[in-house]
Fold:
Amino acid sequence: MLKQSVIDAVEQGLFTIYSVSNVNEALSLLMNREAGEINAEGQYPEDSINFKAVARLKEISDMSGDEDKDVEGG
Structure:
């Protein structure tokens, strides 16, 4: 149960409480854009948060792979 002070603050419009079912809903609320749903080909829409996250993770993975090659060849 919420404290009465929290309920009062919500009633006064000081902040809002949202209920979410999953991380994608939270991301969409926090970032004011679609998180993106994966399609049958395993891809996210290009303008989605998840697309950008996967793209960045791939970049980081590629950088790590380059470092591994340098160590092996060095």
The chain has one domain: 4-73. The helical segments are 4-11, 23-31, 49-73. DSSP finds three helices and no strands in the chain. The longest helix spans residues 49-73.
